[in-house]
Amino acid sequence: MADSRQRQFTNPEQPGYVGFANLPNQVHRKSVKRGFEFTLMVVGESGLGKSTLVNSLFLTDLYPDRQIPSALEKIKQTVRIDASTVEIEERGVKLRLTVVDTPGFGDSLNSADCFIPIIQYIDDQFERFLNDESGLNRRHITDNRVHCCFYFVNPSGHGLKPHDIAFMRAVHHKVNIVPVIAKADTLTKQEVFNLKRKILDQIDECAISIYSLPDCESDEDEDFKEQSRQLRSAVPFAVIGANTVIEVKSRKVRGRMYPWGVVEVENPEHCDFIKLRTMLITHMQDLQEVTQEIHYENYRAQKIEKGEPVKKPRGTLTQTDSDREKELRDKDAEIQRMQQMLAKMQAEMSQQKAVQNGDSKAQDVTV
Ligand SMILES: Nc1nc2c(ncn2[C@@H]2O[C@H](COP(=O)(O)OP(=O)(O)O)[C@@H](O)[C@H]2O)c(=O)[nH]1
Ligand SMILES: [Mg+2]
């Protein structure tokens, strides 16, 4: 029994298979034809294995000519945003995957500064979508919104550090955060267990909302329910990345070689890599829906609340558009003025009433 459960997290086919070709089972046929657009952001201190993990996840070298900065460069470094897009096709299903890497996070002495460009990036994508949505050509909008953010936690930090907490709190209403424990091969099983518990406690204490896997429908099949349970209990996923293929007992595996043996990335006994990939693939559509229905709607609501006009991308602003925008802005301002006036009038009226009540009591006059 346990055996069959294990199998759900092993590679169903040859190594080199990502698994999103199964997506048509879950989504509308139209999006299958067009292909999926998905954006994954990776954030965490540099050197935690973000780039390696991304390459292991999608079996593509997204960063063929990367350079590792020196310590001196790192001190000066502010966070950079690198977005790379690859198109992966598997059994006729296309995935347009954008990975947004944030090298330099936590390197600079003032780590709060690192948040700003990341938050800006997320907001910019919402803004772009909002503009496109209110534009004329709404049928072919490219969705560049960040659908998921893997947040890498340092395995040697004994839990979340203050900047981890601050970052997550700064973005948890904007993006689906999936926390991962980096370089899990540097910890023992017990240490991983303790660290997971500590991180979950801290997430709870600090009221950080991370992405939660959706509840299964009651008519879902048992295997799927069991898979969801196992995925849920693996959070925060303890992962290992490696770009080298090693031969173990005439099997080729992605792994890291040590004097005492090989750590296999895709072995569920060794780490949660396959679980993380399964989570991402099977919940890609849910991650998109939560982005659309919660995070994007939050963004829109905030914009409306602030009374900010929806900006058009440069170059597309026509006279009529700007006129209409001005009209809307004026109307908004007028509504605000009226609301203020109303509030003032109500305050005055209730003051008067209070005075009258006082008087009527004193004079004992009935109305
Ligand atoms: N032990 C161990 N080392 C790793 C792991 N993933 C990556 N590395 C190594 O850590 C170093 C930094 O990895 P990189 O992917 O560039 O980290 P990034 O700065 O977060 O993108 C490289 O030497 C990798 O080979 C892992 O899971 N375990
Ligand atoms: Mg990197």
TL;DR of this structure?
Residues 321-330 have a biased composition (Basic and acidic residues). With 367 residues, the chain is α/β, with parallel strands linked by helices.
Give your account of this protein's structure.
The protein is α/β, with parallel strands linked by helices and 367 residues long. It folds into two domains: 22-306, Rossmann fold (3-Layer(aba) Sandwich), CATH 3.40.50.300; 318-367. The chain contains eleven helices and nine strands. The chain has helices at residues 2-7, 29-34, 50-58, 71-76, 112-133, 162-171, 189-205, 222-234, 273-282, 284-306, 319-363, and strands spanning 36-43, 82-90, 93-101, 148-153, 177-181, 237-238, 245-248, 251-258, 261-264. The strands form two sheets. It has a six-stranded mixed β-sheet with strand order 2-3-1-4-5-6, with helices on both faces. The longest helix is centred in the C-terminal third of the chain and has 45 residues, at 319-363. The relative contact order is 0.12. The model is unreliable at 1-15, 24-30, 71-78, 312-319 and 361-367 (pLDDT under 50). The chain binds guanosine-5'-diphosphate and magnesium ion (MG). Guanosine-5'-diphosphate (GDP) binds next to helix 3.
Number of helices: 11
CATH level-3 fold name of the largest domain: Rossmann fold
Poorly predicted parts: 1-15, 24-30, 71-78, 312-319, 361-367
Distance between the termini: 81 Å
Name the structural class.
Answer: alpha/beta
| Helicity level | 40-55%
Radius of gyration: 26 Å
- Give the topology string: H per helix, E per strand: HHEHHEEHEHEHHEEEEHHH
Give the biggest sheet.
6 strands, mixed
- Mean pLDDT over the residues: 77
The number of strands is 9
Q: Write down the CATH class of the largest domain.
A: Alpha Beta
Share of β-strand residues: 5-15%
Which overall shape is indicated by the principal axes computed on the Cα atoms?
Answer: elongated
CATH superfamily of the largest domain: P-loop containing nucleotide triphosphate hydrolases
Tell me which ligands are bound.
Answer: guanosine-5'-diphosphate, magnesium ion
**Main sheet: strand order:** 2-3-1-4-5-6
CATH architecture descriptor text of the largest domain: 3-Layer(aba) Sandwich
Keywords: Cell cycle, Cell division, Cell membrane, Cell projection, Cytoplasm, Cytoskeleton, GTP-binding, Membrane, Mitosis, Nucleotide-binding
Subcellular location: Cell projection, Cilium membrane; Cleavage furrow; Cytoplasm, Cytoskeleton, Spindle; Midbody
Main location: membrane
Region (Disordered): 305-330, 343-367
